[in-house]
Design goal:
Strand order of the largest sheet: 1-9-10-6-5-2-3-4
Structural class: alpha/beta
Order of helices and strands: HHEHHEHEHEEHEHEHHEHHHEEH
Number of strands: 10
Largest sheet: 8 strands, mixed
Helix content: 40-55%
Radius of gyration: 24 Å
Number of helices: 14
Distance between the termini: 77 Å
Length: 429
């Protein structure tokens, strides 16, 4: 038997079994399918070309904001002291994103990989650079706080600064920052129970007493007053909810967004992962063991129904609408144009046009231009809410994927003045 699945997979299985060859003569419909495949590829190429032309037209007519944002490399600001405030050589493995194990058992993983412990992959280096970028900004806030600058909430210059990590995942940002800044308190907010438990497990393994974990949605988690909110790669409108919570709390914010394409859910009135406003449940989007075990369709359907029962429709929260700023909303003809920008921004790191022959550099340029407008919209929205904002590029931005290289920093006007002065471009002597 040739088995179930796609025609191409059945052919591969038959060839492996020696019952078929790759010759077209063994399949009289091969030529017709090849023509159909080529036709679909041409259709995809033309569709992508029209989409990219539309995005170019939108970007070309947008007037830049009066702020003159330029996404300054963090290394070119006065805050850059020549080195980040993190020494990875002394960082515990459970706090180092380059050494974290999938199951949280860093001790066993380190022992098993002792021979290659000195090797740090490019991806691991990027994760460290991302953390270092946040650390450089936090260092400036800490310095001003210690000088009695009055930037934090609460009016007590001697108290500890409180930092909330929105969408903390399994602790790639929270834990190294908590280790590097023991005089600050950190709260990790994460919607996935397994990830939240890993943060707690790793904090305990590292002996960190300044980390608290909350499992819940960013927009609804009950959080006591805080001074700074951070969000590293909070998908879709999770970044916007993070900024909104900081604005409501009069707190400073540091965000490095990604997954701009997921704003399609937000545009539809939903959450960061669904077109509906729902609470995340681990069983709703988790693994499907009944399929992995080869169970039948009835068992699969029953399991899916059970997962759907676990999806909790949430009561209305503060709506996130797009565009976020008057600056952009007054220049776009419709929400569809914003959706086009968001879609292009998310594909800016692609190798090329699917099914087409457009040069990848062209796709990258379109993606970068579109993402710039989306991030400027977020920055301008915060300014219109009374914030001072700096748009920066993360450390070693040239080595980062173009859709993960931006850093937006904001603070209520009149607060953290010294820190934000040092986040401006350094003036050469």
């Amino acid at each position: 038997a040739m088995g179930n699945g796609s025609r191409s997979r059945r052919l591969r299985e038959a060839m492996a079994a020696g019952t078929a060859t790759a010759e077209a003569g063994d399949d009289p419909n091969a030529a017709r399918r090849a023509q159909k495949k080529a036709h679909k590829a041409r259709q995809r190429r033309r569709k992508n070309e029209r989409r990219h032309d539309a995005v170019r037209a939108i970007v070309s007519r947008l007037a830049p904001p009066a702020s003159g944002d330029a996404f300054t490399p963090l290394e070119k600001t006065r805050a850059w002291d020549g080195a980040p405030p993190i020494d990875w050589s002394t960082m515990r493995a459970s706090c180092d994103p380059a050494k974290m194990a999938y199951d949280g058992d860093e001790a066993s993983a380190s022992a098993a990989n002792a021979a290659s412990a000195a090797v740090v992959t490019v991806r691991a280096k990027r994760k460290r650079w991302q953390v270092e970028s946040f650390a450089v900004v936090l260092r400036e806030l800490q310095r001003e706080h210690e000088r009695g600058g009055g930037g934090g909430n609460g009016g007590d210059d001697a108290r500890r600064l409180k930092v909330v990590d929105f969408g903390a995942g399994s602790g790639n940002l929270t834990l190294p920052l908590a280790a590097a800044f023991p005089s600050m308190d950190f709260v990790a907010v994460e919607m996935k129970r397994r990830s939240a438990d890993l943060v707690s497990q790793r904090a305990a393994a590292a002996g960190l007493s300044n980390v608290t974990v909350l499992c819940g949605m960013i927009e609804r988690a009950e959080i006591a007053p805080f001074d700074v909110g951070v969000a590293l790669h909070a998908c879709g409108n999770a970044t916007d909810h993070s900024i909104a919570r900081c604005v409501r709390a009069n707190a400073a914010f540091l965000v490095s967004p990604c997954c701009i394409g997921k704003l399609k859910f937000s545009i539809a009135g939903g959450s960061s992962f669904s077109a509906n406003v729902v609470d995340y449940k681990d069983t709703a989007l988790g693994s499907r063991p009944e399929r992995e075990a080869g169970a039948g369709a009835a068992a699969t359907k029953a399991s899916e129904d059970a997962r759907n029962d676990d999806v909790v429709v949430c009561p209305p929260v503060e709506a996130i609408t797009h565009p976020r700023s008057r600056w952009l909303s007054t220049q776009l003809a419709s929400e569809n144009e914003f959706a086009a920008l968001a879609a292009a921004a998310d594909t800016g790191h692609a190798a090329g046009v699917p099914g087409g022959d457009a040069p990848s550099d062209d796709v990258l340029d379109i993606g970068r231009a579109a993402k710039t407008q989306v991030e400027l919209d977020r920055a301008e929205g915060a300014r219109e809410a009374g914030y001072v904002v700096r748009t920066l590029a993360v450390l070693n931005a040239a080595e980062a994927p173009p859709n993960k290289s931006d850093l937006i920093v904001g603070a209520r006007r009149g607060r953290w003045r010294d820190a934000f002065e040092r986040l401006a471009v350094a003036v050469s002597a």
